[in-house]
UniProtKB/TrEMBL annotation:
Keyword terms: ATP-binding, Ligase, Nucleotide-binding, One-carbon metabolism
UniProt GO MF annotations: ATP binding; formate-tetrahydrofolate ligase activity
Protein name: Formate--tetrahydrofolate ligase
A GO biological process held by the record: one-carbon metabolic process
Amino acid sequence: MAHQKPLLPVQTPVPEDIDIAQAIAPVHISSIAEKLGLTPSEYDLYGAHKAKVKLSVRDRLKDAAPGKYVVVAGITPTPLGEGKSTTTIGLCQALGAYLGKK
């Protein structure tokens, strides 16, 4: 498979996490849930930008094609608290924006 051009420009040097985080306005979580096909009864809001998805979604999607799962484990957090969650989000962004993978 030929390497394709990244969907997002690669910056050198890589910007600091805080610069990346402040470069975009947060999207309301209900907009993201809607794009994912979740109904409002399938998640609980925790403010405007966080939610927990209810396990009942698994039952509704039991016949759907299986997705992909990446495990990030055994990471010692940095002094700023960057650990598994930050690494997982970074991997997802790299796979989606740079490699065009879901």
